[in-house]
Amino acid sequence: MNHTPRFRTAVGGILLVVTLGTVATACGDPDAHPLSAQPYDAARQIAFNTETDGRKVDPDKPLEITAKGEGGRITDVTVTDDAGRFLAGELSADGVRWRSTAPLAAGARYTVRVSTEDEDGAPGVRVLTFETKPAERFLAAEFGPEAGTYGVGQPVTAKLSLAVKDEDARRTVERALKVTSRPAVEGSWYWVDDKTLHYRPREYWPSGATVTASSNLKGVKVTGQLYGGPSKPLELSIGDRIEAVTDAAAHTMVVKRNGEVINTIPVTTGKPGFDTRNGVKVVLGKESYVRMRSTSIGIAAGSSESYDLPVYWATRVTWSGEYVHAAPWSVGSHGAANVSHGCTGMSMANAKWFFETVRQGDIVSVVNSYGDMMTPFGNGFGEWNLSWEKWREGSALTGGTAEDTGPSAATARLRPVAL
To answer: Where is the L,D-TPase catalytic domain (predicted)?
Structure first.
C-alpha cells in the first residue's frame, strides 16, 4: 500500500500541504511541525507512518506546495538536491501555491525550505526533506583524452553511453557537460554524432592553462525514463604553444614555440596523386618506430607505387596514416621536391628533433598543397579548420556555452507569477 506523509503545522499561522508524486521517506520533524500531504492525483488524504515506510518519490511527478488557511501566504520556496542544484518552480501571485516547473532528479535527496507569513505579516519557515527513486536507465559521459599535459590544439571529447537524438535532450545533456579553464576562455561543444561531442575554445588554449571537464548530469532527466548517470571528471594541463607550418610549395617546415621560430626544416610532402592534406591538424600520438606498408592505404603489393619500409621518429596527425617522419631514402628531395605518398618526410636528425619537441595536441598545419582540406572529424582532430561561427552551429544550445548559463538556467528559483 502506498502512503504519503501527513502532518499538520501552523507555520506563520498557515497549514501547508506538500504534494508529491508518491510516498516519501520521513519529512522534517513531524513531532514538532506536523504537515499534511496528499498524492498528486488523489483527492483523499492518506495517513503516513514515518517510522516504518521507506518508499521514495517518483521523480516523474511534480512537487506542489499549497497554503491552506485564511489570510496567510507562501512568500518563498527553495528546493535543492544534494548536489546543490535548485529545482525551478512557480509561485502563484496570491502566494497560495508553489509548484515545480522542472523535472526532479532521480536518486536524489531534496531539501525544501518554505517561507510564509500570516495575515498580520508574521513570518514562518518550514524545512523538510524527501528522496526520489533511482533511475532504471542511465546516460553517462566519458571524457577524453586521458589526464596529462597536451598542446594548445587538443580538444576535449565526451563519449556518451547511449545515443541522444532528440534536440531537447541534447540541450539538457550539453548544459550539464561543463568545461572550464584557468585562465578562462570562450568555448563550445559540437555534436559530432549522436554519441560524441567535442569541445574547443574559440582560439587555441592559452599556454599554461588548466582545463577541467565535468558533468552535472547525474540524476537529471534527459528524456522519457532516461536519466543522467555519474561521470568521472577530467583535468588537463596545456603546455607551450608549439605550431609547425609546412609550406608544400616551398618544401619547408617552420616550427614555432610561443610565437618564436625555433627551427626551419627542409621537407618533402605528397607527390601528385598523393598530395598531402591542407589545413590544420593536431598531433594524435608518436611512435619511435612503425612499419609502413602501401597496402594499408590501398596500394597493391608489387605495384609501381608499393612500399614496405621501416620508419623512425613518426609523429601521427591523421588516423588514416599521415605522419611527420624520418625519410632518409628521399633526403636528396628534402627542401626541393615533393616525392612522398602523403606524409611529411625529413632527415633522421630533424625527425628525431621534431619527435622530441612536440606532444599530443600540438598544431601541425600544411599550406600550398594540391591536396584536399583536412576534414573536421573522422580522421583525427580537424576542428580548427572550422570558423568559430561554423563551430557554434554544432552546439545544441542557442548561442553556445559563452552566453548560456548552464544548469542554473534550467533550475533557478522563480519569483511569484500568476498561474
So the answer is: 242-367
